[in-house]
Amino acid sequence: MRQIVAAGNWKMNMTPSETKALISELAPLVKDAKNKVIVCPTAVCLPAAVEAAKGTNILVGAQNMYFEDKGAFTGEISADMLLDLGIKYVILGHSERRQYFAETDETVNKKVLKAFEKGLTPIICVGESLEQREQGVTADLVRMQVKIALLGVTADQAKNTIIAYEPIWAIGTGKTATTEQAEEVCKTIRDCVCELYDCATAEAITIQYGGSVNAKNSAELFAQENIDGGLVGGASLKAADFSVIANS
Q: Active site includes 134?
């Protein structure tokens, strides 16, 4: 059975002191969660998050990393820097990174390969815009994103990958894909992985839904056959709401 993973993408929110406070508030609310619980604060808050999460079942992930080990890359963060802090997970290819910081499918693939080389678990984001959905190319686009992201990734590595389907039109808008829409695309992703590797690999891979996941819709979404949890934005900044999602 695939484990349900509830991951909170805090985006550019929370100071280090606020990070400690939120994790301290969240920890007792999710201590009995059967699902895996991950919080992903901004880079400057990672040390505070790791410290606050010690002794709890809360895991800490980063929101991004670069594909080089070191060098003249002002403002970037390497995998080794994350590992030294005790980070286990890293979000890669989020639509906001693609939209605002010119990330491409190819750079996402480079980051995925570096993450696996270093022993980090990538949370790979894929998804379509509203225009692309209306043009009927959602499946084609998502399959292309998955295929390029996983270029050079072995079957064993793929089994330990988390793929987050996030329709861009549902991120931070309050709009949510219907349960049927989310399940349909997550199944498309799993079928694509089966074609790339084999069906055992496809059955092992974790596929999340992201896009205005909240305390009211998480249980229904997570109950779907091909949805293994969620990558949660705004709701993950509220301990009470995120705890409901984590326990869904």
A: no
